Fold these 2 entries.
Entry 1:
Amino acid sequence: MSEQTQNPEQEVELNEEISKMQADVEAAVEAADQHAEQEQSPEAEIAMLYAELEAAKQTIADQKDGVVRAAADVDNIRRRAAQDVEKAHKFALEKFANELLPVIDNLERAIEFSDKENETLKPLLEGIDMTVKSFNDAVSKFGVEIVNPQGEQFNPDFHQAMSIQPSNDVTPNTVLAVMQKGYTLNGRLLRPAMVMVSKAADA
C-alpha cells in the first residue's frame, strides 16, 4: 500500500489548524488560571470581610479618641482662661491698693503723734479718723484687709520682724508691738506687718 502524499497547500492548512488549536488551549488555560485566582472560598471571603470590619472599627476608635482628646484640650483651655480672668479681676486693684497704703499710713501717724489733749485739734483729728475709717471701709469692699497682729503669734508669711525683745510676760514669738500694719488683697499679701517679737528672757 502506497503512502498518500500531501500537497503543500494541505500541509500549510494543517499546520495553521494545529497552531490555532494550540492557541485556543493556551487561552483557555490562562482564562482558567485567572478565574481560579479571582474565585475565593467562602471562608476566605469571610476572613477578608472580618479583617476589613476590624480595620474600620480601629479607625472609628482612633477617631473617637482624637475627639475625646480634643474636647479635653478645649475644656482645659477654657478652664485656664476662666482662672486667668478670675485672677485678673481678683488682683487688678493690687497696684492701686499699694499706692493707697502710704496715704493711710500717713493719716494714722497724724492721729498717733498729734496732741490729743489740744481741744483745738480735736475736730481736725476726728475728721482724719473718719477719713481713715472711710479709706479702710472702701478698700475692704474690694478684698483689702488689714494685718494688725498685736498680741498674736509671729507668722513669717504675713509679718516681718523688725526687732526681738526678751519678755517674761508673754510666750516667745509673740508680737509685742506693731510698728506698721500690713495688708492683704483677697488673702494674698500686699505688705507684711512690721512687728516687734518676743523671746524668752535670759535667766
Entry 2:
Amino acid sequence: MWPEPFTVNGKHVDVVPLAYQHEKDLQEAAADGDLHKLWYTTIPAADEVNAEIGRRLSLQQSGSMLPFSIIDRTNGHAVGMTTYMNIDAANRRLEIGSTWYRKSVQRSPFNTECKLLLLQHAFESLDCIAVEFRTHFVNTQSRRAIERLGAKLDGVLRSHMMMANGTLRDTAVYSIIAPEWPTVKANLQWQLEKPR
C-alpha cells in the first residue's frame, strides 16, 4: 500500500492516522459552528461523525485514501480531519483534501502547519511528482487558503459532481509540483514564523 500510515508532528498540531478513539473530539469539533450546514462543502454533522470515520477507514482499506485526525498539541484534542485522497501510486500523485476544522481554530496556524507537514511528507518522503487540492468553485475561503499555500490553479472541472442539495459543483483544481516545493516550503515556514 502506498502511502503507508504515518504520523507527523509540528509545533501547533500533530497529524495522526484517523481512529475511532477521536470520535468524541471530532463530534465536538463538527458541532462548533454548525459547519455541516455549509451547502458547498461536505462536513459531517456531530451525529454523523462515526459514519464518516467508517467511510474514510473503508476507503483506506481500498487504497484510495489515507485519513488523518488533526490534533491540537496544546490539549491533545482532535480539532478536524484531513486526508491524502485520489491516490495514484503509479504516477506518485495524490490530493490533500476532505479537510475541515472546528470553527474556533479556523484562521489559526493549524491549517498552514498541517499542510506544511503533509506536503513535506509527500514531496520529501514519498517523492511525489505533484500534490493536488480541489474545492467547490464558490468556496472562496477554501480557494484563498489553497492559493496562500502556493498552489496554482490548473483549471475548473465544470459540472463535475452532484452536491447533496442537488446542485452541480464546478470543481477548482489546484496543484503544487515537485520543482515548486522548495519555494512553497520556504513560504509556508515564513507564514508560520512571521510576527502576527
